[in-house]
Write a structure and sequence with these properties.
The protein is built from 26 helices and 13 strands. The protein is an alpha/beta fold.
Length: 626
């Protein structure tokens, strides 16, 4: 900013007949810099033509102004607080220049009240040469005001009245084809605004958070962390202010309440910095329109620590992708690459909803998320996760070499016992072998021991439907062959858990069917349940089901017919194809009985309808491809 200050200072201290232009992208802090830095410097600078007075800076936003009269009105309104003091009046030339603006306004009194009289003391006059007019938002001027007319007005002021004029704009957004030709007539120098993000940051804290000392101190202490995170994707200060404003509520709630939780007191710094980084990252994505409350770009796909964030930030590899061709990165991958390279990524739904305008911030929801992230059960962080957390990328660098080795050995002891969640064993391998394999582990034996331990813990796992996605890894990951095999073992185990779960569910469903068919009927056809797409009958015993049908009351028999007619309507899911074997066996048994019965009674009709709908279901499932 020193160059800009020097140019403006030189401009004020010389005879000029032109304006200065300060140009830069939206949000980089041009207006903020004028208000909080340049304005003070201008006010302290003696007027070039009268050193007994200092310049009076006036900021006028052109945003939406439709005429020169409206601009004049804005100039007058900026001067009005001074003119309310009867001691001051406008010089004749400035009064003439803003006359239409004064007359345009109502309720402020007569024109003569504010303009020079013949016998007035000259020291009490506000003259044009005292003013430094700063016109902001030139690119946002109303279409009703021709830019040529505005440039003409500025030209009159600088040439006829020697007024000092600064124009702030984002020149790249000015679309008028005549602008460059007009600019040459009145703009003497165009200065590119290159912000000092550090100075701007300090100014923002002083301006916005001076009355909140605890929060301001926190922001000052973490300035480097905040600016490093923020500047990765933007320099828009409005976005930074937006993020810091929203985080203030989070900081206040967390600082006042969270650390009453004994198990999280020592995590205070880590928790706050994680939440701060997430808030800044989400704010940036939200303000540029890449995400909304509903459009989340799969950032919330997994609530566990994202393994891929610990590794390389190049293109990802998944087990179901057989070729090595580079694939287009997902929005989630780009987000992690931008903000979480070599760092843990946790998705905080409570913060996301708050920042994107979905809900107010709910501390209780955040607390539930933190307890899950830190594996807190019965208000205690489980010891295996206490060890694991110490090896995270924000924590491990606080360990000495000896402590790091000792903690890594403890983590492996827990891993060999199957104490960790199935999502974490790839990370365990990575933690144990990074930094050049400091324990000198045999990688083949380590891989086998980790897989063996993971299998030991099977009884503690639930099926993770997004595990394949969650365990995406980078194509150039260190020790990738070992990682791939551990990944495959985890996915195979996850599939076994799903199969076991489905078998258990099927067994419970079959029992419910025979104990209370009405509840079974409702559950199977409930659109809120997953059974519409689960081949539940593939696990049923067809002979046992037929015996149930045969021995049931007529009303239950008819409900069974209705069940099959509804479950396998036109275009059923191909996921139900495994039901075909059950349906065929049941149909064969029912058909034999139907042939023995006379079709001229209710029982015969019910059997024939059952056969009809079973055959229809078989035909539809055989024909389906989706």
């Amino acid at each position: 900013m020193q160059r800009l200050d020097e140019i403006v200072d030189l401009y004020l201290n010389m005879d000029t007949n032109y304006a200065l232009m300060i140009t830069g992208d939206w949000g980089v802090g041009k207006t903020h810099y004028f208000k909080h830095t340049l304005k003070g410097k201008i006010s302290a600078t003696p007027v070039f033509q009268d050193n007994s007075k200092n310049y009076r800076p006036i900021l006028v936003s052109l945003f939406g102004l439709k005429s020169i009269e409206e601009i004049q009105s804005e100039i007058f309104l900026c001067l009005y607080p001074i003119l309310k003091n009867a001691k001051f009046k406008l010089g004749a030339t400035i009064g003439k220049a803003v006359a239409k603006g004064i007359l345009h306004l109502k309720g402020l009194g007569e024109y003569s009240k504010y303009v020079e009289e013949i016998d007035i003391n000259q020291s009490s006059l506000i003259k044009f040469e005292e003013l430094v007019l700063c016109f902001d938002d030139l690119e946002r001027i109303s279409k009703n005001l021709n830019i040529e007319e505005f440039i003409g007005y500025v030209n009159t002021l600088v040439e006829s009245e020697n007024v000092k004029i600064l124009i702030i704009a984002n020149e790249g957004k000015i679309t008028d084809q005549n602008y460059n030709a007009l600019k040459e007539k009145v703009i003497g120098n165009s200065i590119e605004f290159i912000p000092s993000i550090g100075d701007s940051y300090d100014s923002i804290l002083a301006d916005k958070f001076a009355g909140f000392q605890s929060y301001k101190t926190f922001l000052e202490d973490n300035k480097e962390f905040i600016l490093e995170t923020f500047s990765k994707k933007t320099t828009n200060l409005r976005t930074l202010i937006f993020a810091l404003n929203y985080f203030q509520r989070i900081y206040s709630e967390v600082n006042n309440q969270l650390f009453n939780e004994d198990n999280l007191k020592e995590k205070q710094s880590e928790v706050l910095l994680n939440l701060l980084k997430f808030t800044i990252a989400i704010s940036i994505e939200y303000k540029v329109g890449r995400i909304t409350f509903k459009k989340r770009n799969e950032l919330d796909a997994s609530s566990e620590i994202d393994w891929s964030a610990f590794l390389s930030n190049t293109n990802s590899w998944q087990g179901n992708v057989n070729n090595e061709k580079e694939k287009v990165k997902t929005e989630r991958e780009l987000f992690i690459e931008a903000f979480y390279t070599n760092d843990n990524f946790n998705f905080y739904n409570s913060v996301y909803d708050y920042v994107t305008g979905g809900t107010n911030f709910k501390y209780s929801s955040l607390l539930d998320e933190l307890k899950k992230i830190y594996h807190i059960e019965e208000n205690i962080i489980q010891p295996q996760y206490e060890v694991y957390n110490k090896l995270g990328y924000q924590s491990c660098f606080s360990l000495s070499n000896e402590e790091y080795l000792k903690t890594t050995k403890k983590m492996l002891d827990y891993a060999y016992k199957g104490s960790y969640d199935i999502t974490l064993y790839l990370t365990v391998f990575h933690f144990a072998t990074r930094f050049g394999n400091p324990l000198n582990l045999n990688l083949d034996r380590l891989e086998k021991a980790i897989i063996k331990g993971m299998i030991k813990g099977k009884k503690n796992y639930n099926h993770n439907h997004s595990l394949d996605f969650h365990l995406s890894i980078a194509s150039n990951t260190e020790h990738i062959d070992h990682i791939k095999r551990i990944r495959k073992a985890a996915l195979d185990l996850n599939n076994e858990i799903l199969s076991d779960t489905k078998t258990e569910e099927s067994s419970e469903l079959e029992k419910l069917c025979y104990d209370n068919f009405e509840d079974f009927y409702k559950k199977v056809l409930d659109n809120q349940q997953s059974f519409n797409f689960d081949p539940i009958f593939s696990k049923f015993d067809a002979d046992k089901f037929y015996s149930y049908f045969y021995n049931s009351e007529p009303s239950i028999r008819w409900e069974i017919v209705r069940l099959f007619s509804y479950r396998y309507r036109e275009y059923p899911s191909s996921q139900l194809k495994p039901d075909i074997v059950f349906l065929q066996k049941l149909k064969d048994r029912a058909e034999r009985r139907s042939n023995q019965l006379s079709g001229k009674n209710v029982t015969g009709f019910v059997y024939s309808e059952l056969v009809k709908y079973l055959q229809l279901a078989i035909d539809r499932l055989n024909a389906t491809t989706h």
